[in-house]
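FIELD: query
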Amino acid sequence: MQIPISRRRFLSQTAASAAGAIAFPYTAKSSEKGMIANKLNVGCVGIGHMGNYAVREALAENAAAFCDVDWRPDEAVWRFGNPSKTVADNTQAKSFTDFRRMLDKMHKNLDVVLISTPDHTHFPISMAAMEYGLPIFVQKPLAHNIWQLRTLKKAAHHYSVKTNMGNQGHTFEGARLIKEWYDQGVLGEVREVHAWTDRPIPPWFIKPDSIPPKRQRTPRNVDWDLWQGPTKERSFSTEYVPTRWRAWWDYGVGCLGDIGCHTLDTPFWALDLGIPTAVDVQLDEPANNQFTPFGAHVTYHFPARGDKPPVTMHWYEGRPRPRKLEGMEELPGNGMYMIGSQEIAYHEDMRPNSVQLWPRERMQEYREVLKKRTIPRVQGGPIKELFRDIKGEGPVSGSNFDYSAKLTEVILLGSLAIRLGHRIEWDAENMVVTNFPGLEKYIKEPVRPGWSYGENLGV
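FIELD: result
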């Protein structure tokens, strides 16, 4: 196992970095090749597949560093975003395999770090970057367990850094429209929400031949120890990498973790739902503590919030589906609808691309009201949003950790119910499942030696 960089060394440098972030307005840091005016120096951790989205955004600024643990050159391995090709095409950026080495050597020349790794490594990379006082973007879901979420939220304030999570739909026009419709009373009281996904589907979710999968030889260009990060050691398998890890509970958080941050974001935001007190679950097949089942119906129970009524929010993945709305020929593969006492808000797709009242003819009745715009719009996606936030050219990022940690806690509670196949009653204040003893190991997962972060924050 590789020896981690000294924590003392991290912390001794953090104070100066964080203080600089607080005391001075944004100025791009100078790189070895000189300052590029008004351009951020960007470090990317995880540059294959979804990481390629971060790479494209980094190249629009100044891509200063790339880091990945899988450098296999074979194009057949990659659906898009081959890390080896990315580095070869962009020689101005320094390349690393270990994110700790990248941060140790490059932190003085970086303005922001974009993290697009598997779910189980979001937390340690995020914490390491924030300890250096660096702003961060993290792909969804924000973390792998609830203790990590609470710690990331606290760390963002402790180190005074700007943050954003990659639920792209939170920057969309559709999310703002639905919230405006609700706030203006168009929908009336909303007590019921339904959201669904076509996952599990290939290439992300494929049932393995065996659990655990058969041992395979680790490819020469893969640092398997670093890929596993804080989790217990397992043998290498293509059942995990590069795309199938989401279905394995040690590494991902299932279909809900994959898509829920997109599809549940709009109702969570519009209705100001907060944290549920209980989560029920029905599975299409027996629960498995290693691999996600292929089919689940999760029911969240949210209490009343001030003058807003309690809400029951349903999530369906795989074969289970909600009822079709009246006049709907068939449900699309992904979508969401909120049932109000006056109107129904609906969108197809996993994100709020095309929102409407249902049936669409109802839009005419509210034509003048629906024209009102009360929420600022966002140009571009969440990475551009964070870049503007860092530069002082825009408002605070919408999915900053104060917001996204709470949204992701909702997601992880549902994933835990699926993993256990059991109802969860949740005491959010004390971070305890009250009806099912012995779940502490899921709320705060054990880590391998050398991978402990955030303990000093006392969550």
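FIELD: remark
Residues 56 and 63 are 9 Å apart (CA to CA).
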